[in-house]
Amino acid sequence: MSNITTLGLVELNSIAKGIFACDAMVKISDVEIIESYPVCPGKYVIMISGDVAAVEASVKTGMLTAKDNFVDKLVIPHVHSEIIPGILGTLEMHDIQAVGILETFSVASAIVAADTSLKASKVNLIEIRLAKGLGGKSFYTLTGSVAAVTSAIEAGALILEKEGVLVDKQIIPQPHESLKQQLTEW
What's the CATH fold of domain 83-185? Predict the structure, then answer.
C-alpha cells in the first residue's frame, strides 16, 4: 500500500445497497478496497485507493449506484501516509508525548480533518476510529509536542466547525503513563 496517493470513500444509509455499490465501484476502475463494512446506525462505508482518476470514477459510480441511499463521499489526492494505516490499525507506534483527540459526527469528516491535522503540523497519528461501535461518530488521536498537537488539532477542528460536525476536541499536554499504554493497545 505504499504507492497509495488517493483515498476515496462513499457512505450509504443501506447495508445491502452499500455492498452492491462496493462491487460496482471496484468493477468500474482499477482501485483497491481498503475497507468495506457496516457501521452504526445501519450505514455502510466503502473506502478505496488508487490513482486520482480511478478513485474519482469509482466514487462517482458509488454515488450513482447508491441513489437515494447516498450519505457522504470524499476524495483526497495525496492523502497523508499515516491515514490508511491509522484506519486499519497498522501504524508503527511512536513515543507518546502530548495527545490530541478530535471527535466528529461523521466518517468522511474525520478522515478529512485527520489528513488536515497531519499536514498542518509535525505530529504522528495514533489511530483513527470510524463509526464502528461508536453510534456513527468517529475520532482520531495524535501525538507530538504540545505546540505541534495544538496546531494540528486546531487545523482539523476548523474543518469540522465549518461543516458543523465537531463534537469535541481535547489536548492532553502530559498524559499519564497508564493512558499512554492504553492508547497504544487499542
Answer: Alpha-Beta Plaits (3.30.70)
